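Hi, here's the filled form for the chain we discussed.

Project: internal
Contact: R.S.
Residues: 482
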Amino acid sequence: MKTMNRGRRVMAASMLAFGLAACGGGSGAQSTPSPVTPPAAGTTVRADFSATNAEYPNPERGFYRAASGNLDGLSAAQVADAYAAGFRLMYTRIDLEAYREADIPDDYLNRLEVAFATARAGGVKLIVRATYNYPRGETEYRDAKDASLERVLSHLNQLKPVFARNADVISVMQAGFIGAWGEWHTSSNNLTTPENRTRIKDALLDAVPSTRFVQFRYPPYIQDWTPTLPSLEAALTGSYRIGFHNDCFMASSTDVGTYDENATVRAGQQQYTGALGDLAPFGGETCNPADEANPTPRTTCAEILSEGAHYNLTYLNDSYYRPLFHNNWISNGCMAQVQRSMGYRFGLVSLTHPASATKGGAIAVSGVVRNSGWARLYNPRPVEIVLRHSASGTVRRFEAIGVDPRRWLPGADATIAATLTVPTDLAAGVYQVWLALPDADGRLKSDVRYSIRLANADDAAKGQKWDSTLGAFATGTKVEVR
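And the returned structure, exactly as it came back:
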């Protein structure tokens, strides 16, 4: 039975207590702010916020675009086109077919590095899978060849430093390597035996940076490794990093072989993967169920809305398999809801803090944030309180110490309690208060394309708005620093 929260249920808010540390500042490129009347000393400022149903492209969630070609050929034009179309995730494949019996050459590894840099420059993150084949049809599928266990382990050792240097633009890693399409249901080298697949699983978790999840294709394998799922703490600390991807999501009663033919066994597997989605990212694609006898694809709006929430759907292929699924969601009027529900969806509910503070003193900030999405945030990310001087426009950012937005669970309100110590070098004056969720990696932290946009409506009367230059949301509140 699912234990995490869902949007349709009434939830108790969870308390997140944290401190704040300064993390730099500078002048923004915004227009000159209007003069602001300082608030009266000793008063408390409160702001309430309105949600919006608008769909905003946000990092590490939503529909993804599959790159045309392989990772080593990823072009700036492809990435730019995807970004302009609203995609923040791209699926791409490391093609190792030519190296089934050889080391990966340095020039190929270098091309992978260039491709990751292309993604970074273009504002997207990648879902990555390595494969030794990519069959086009049933005949090719039967003849698909992978590599020996020793070769797979050697290749993972070669790829490990590449993954480490580019963890910032890897959203999630799909296990790959074994069998047709790297989907672990076949192997020409006996890689699906319990011993061999476990050795590859361990090597994958070692090769992929500790901040990133590795998704596997088949629930029974995951259940064998972890019969009892751990607590959320294990996922937050990186001691548990196994997820599930379903590449025939909703396509038949078994999702075309993803789950067991036996209904009782299948129900247990689905209960397990539903609970796994509370810990790890879940995504994949729908598929054509033509290969299964008398399939019963689940194509209605009621079914995608129910299963999206149950499995904590975070991402889905935009282009496959549209005829039965995406097109039905569009024609039946729920596509917009599907788009905005995938993954996390954070919105401020309220915020309160003192109207004034002294240098060296404290500003206590409290508030409520709501996650109305289907899933939690799965990769680490800081929360920042941003102060912008109302007269000069100078910006100072303060990172929340101890707060973890990965704890903001789907369908739940989280209560924020923050104490900001005012630096003694902070210029006196009135500051506008903003909230930001930038990327955790230093290479992307100042790139606002990788910041999370809150699902709050702009309100000119309250001074609340998203600023695409700051990558932050103006709360409409102010604090006077003396």
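Let me know if anything looks off before we file it.
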